[in-house]
Write a structure and sequence with these properties.
By secondary structure, this protein is of the alpha+beta class. The chain has 8 helices and 25 strands.
């Protein structure tokens, strides 16, 4: 029988009818996917949502300078802003008994796996919304628009905002990838006044990196470049050890260390968030461990601090590392009261305070005199105060007091000494800039927040009131 051609396809021929059907199906699928994609919700970093009938529930965490996982946080004043809005969205087919009111019923926040709060919140309903939500619209009003305008949905009013939180990042070891997770549960009221729980909580998280890094060193030479005698070398070594111990207690990572070259110190300045040294100072800079041959002027130092971007821009746009928060220089002539040139070290570190980074409570201290380091055999009272001073200051910081209390205590108990040409006198370390309420270990508290901790009537000065907490949250709503 003769094969008919053009009617039935052979085993390797394409059926034109089937091909056309496939093309139509493919185009239909593509359009469907395009439409579905155009309606997809892309949550910003730190946000998540769940849709339930005519309601979109949201949870969000915002932390300044953190817009992606791994971005760095530092200091004892890290502020978290939490949000939990509810939006009215279209529901197809329309519900015969739609949800008309929403409220936040439970909030839970964990930081690094530790529970900060896990509690019920408001029992008060906000105003109801019996009207349907607005539908999404597009820039060209076409259902096939590739780039839809943000969908315009109404928010339910008076859905209570979840609690904010302030915490000390150095409750955790530096370089920790910290998971901060917010879980929100909601209740609903239907038009029939039926009340119930939404079936699932909304969970969101961010993961910044803790970054508390100290750049510390001490001198090994005299100011003229000669070796320090063993007994005096021991004093600078002990001063460094007391500084190191104080920052280690606050979980700082420390480098480049005891005996450091100019190159190592400048490299560390690019990534650190605190500086402390026991070395030689002058109006224009400080020495590395190896004396005047490795002198570092303020401009070089600050240039290294800012090498990875301007850390003090608000909002930050380029900096890979957080701003400095602590500066302690056991070195001569390191205060603004010294005869500095116009653009001084402290000015470049963002003075006045109004220009300093607001996220981190910050403090800087130094001396305006030529410190005298002597040994016991010289018979000078206070010869060892140069290392007892930082030990005393960090003792008070570890007891939960702010920097003002710690510095006053150290200055009164172990004031360093200097020689004015005729007499031996004491000279306090002076706070060159910063906030008297600043802390290095526990969470930062304002003066009013510290006073609220006291039961004394009348309460003492704010810096006389200790606090040992690592986070601060408001009372439940």
């Amino acid at each position: 029988m003769k094969r008919q051609t053009g009617i039935m396809p052979g085993p390797h021929q394409v059926n034109p009818l089937r091909s056309s059907v496939c093309k139509v199906l493919f185009m239909t699928l593509a359009v469907t996917l395009l439409l579905a994609n155009s309606f997809a919700v892309v949550d910003p970093y730190g946000w998540n949502h769940k849709d339930y009938q005519n309601v979109r529930l949201q949870a969000g965490i915002t932390c300044e300078r953190v817009t992606a996982n791994g971005m760095k946080i530092s200091g004892t004043k890290v502020e978290l802003v939490c949000a939990g809005p509810a939006l009215s969205i279209p529901f197809d087919p329309p519900d015969s008994d739609p949800i008309i009111a929403v409220r936040l019923s439970h909030e839970k926040l964990t930081i690094g796996g530790e529970i900060v709060y896990d509690r019920d919140v408001s029992t008060v309903w906000g105003p109801t919304r019996p009207t349907p939500a607005l539908c999404p619209f597009y820039a060209d009003e076409s259902p096939l628009a590739i780039a839809p305008v943000q969908q315009q949905y109404e928010a339910w009013p008076d859905v209570k905002t979840p609690s904010a939180c302030r915490f000390a990042s150095n409750h955790f070891t530096s370089a920790t990838d910290l998971v901060i997770e917010l879980t929100l549960s909601f209740k609903f009221m239907r038009q029939s006044t039926t009340i119930g729980n939404f079936p699932e909580a909304v969970v969101t998280a961010i993961s910044p990196k803790v970054w508390n890094q100290l750049c510390a060193w001490r001198t090994e030479l005299t100011q003229t470049g000669k070796n320090l005698p063993a007994n005096l070398l021991l004093i600078t070594q002990t001063c460094y050890e007391k500084i190191e111990a104080g920052f280690l207690a606050a979980k700082y990572a420390i480098g480049p260390g005891n005996s450091s070259t100019k190159t190592a110190i400048l490299e560390r300045l690019k990534t650190c968030t605190a500086v402390a040294a026991c070395t030689h100072g002058a109006q224009t800079g400080v020495d590395a461990s190896k004396g005047p041959a490795q002198y570092m002027d303020w401009y070089t130092i600050v240039g290294k601090v800012q090498e990875n971007g301007d850390r003090y821009l608000v909002p930050v746009v380029a900096a890979a590392y957080p701003p400095m928060s602590v500066l302690l220089l056991y070195a001569c002539h390191t205060l603004p009261g010294s005869p500095f040139p116009p653009d001084t070290f402290f000015k470049l570190w963002r003075l006045p305070l109004a220009d300093f980074e607001p996220q981190l409570n910050s403090f800087g201290g130094g001396f305006d005199q030529t410190l005298l380091i002597a040994d016991a055999s010289a018979g000078l009272a206070g010869w060892d105060n140069i290392y007892k001073h930082p030990e005393a200051m960090f003792l008070k910081l570890s007891e939960g007091f702010p920097i003002k209390k710690a510095l006053d205590y150290a200055n009164a108990t172990f004031p360093p000494i200097y020689f004015d040409g005729a007499d031996l006198l004491t000279t306090p370390m002076t706070g060159a800039f910063g906030d008297n309420m600043a802390t290095t270990k526990y969470v930062y508290l304002t003066a009013a927040e510290r006073i609220a901790l006291s039961t004394a009537v009348p309460p003492p000065s704010a810096w006389e009131i200790p606090d040992l907490g690592w986070y601060k949250i408001p009372p439940p709503q």
